[in-house]
């Protein structure tokens, strides 16, 4: 009899994780010392599992929850400016049923797409430590192992790109040498997966024009083409 956990079981386990003392302390402090504009809201303040279509061929991988975004709403990328860009792009590409997401019960549904993160707790200054990244890695391994149809991993930023390579290597896939480097529009084939690089839709990138809507649309159009092969 298999002891493999189901995706809902993994999701529940992730939300109770306390492996990283620094991240636990920070995420819980943020829930107490709220941003003024969200003072009346109850913050989630726990680790975040991925979400979306369990039969997805496309996995979107981010860095970590935003302190006043996913850490507040309880769903990765939901309720922050990066998420505004991401979900609008997923909607334009046909992966989402609506272009915005402000709460985990707002009706958003994803088709053929699953969204997750390399680190599941909001980190101080949005910078997880290497040991925190490593402690979180088994969660992504378990999620990816349960997404049997996944073939394309869209990595939002260099941190996610590196995390994806680490996870695939840990899962026994041969990472090419020299090690593939991140860049917007870059790609790498690792086993049955194709990694696609995309600049993270942070305000630093979107406000400066380093990342445009057209650039994101091109990445997701390519992801769809590769997933259908």
What does this protein structure show overall?
- The protein is an alpha/beta fold.
- The chain has one domain (about 5-225): Uracil-DNA glycosylase-like domain (Uracil-DNA Glycosylase, subunit E, 3-Layer(aba) Sandwich).
- About 40% of the residues lie in helices and about 10% in strands.
- The protein is built from eight helices and six strands; from the N terminus they run ααββααβαβαββαα.
- It has helices spanning about 5-15, 20-30, 70-75, 80-90, 130-145, 160-170, 205, 215-225; strands spanning about 50, 60, 115, 150-155, 185-190, 195-200.
- The protein has a six-stranded mixed beta sheet with strand order 1-3-2-4-6-5, with helices on both faces.
- Helix 4 (about 80-90) crosses helix 8 and helix 5 (about 130-145) crosses helix 6.
- The chain is globular, with a radius of gyration of 17 Å.
- It starts with 6 loop residues before the first helix and ends with a helix.
- The relative contact order is 0.16.
- The mean pLDDT is about 95.
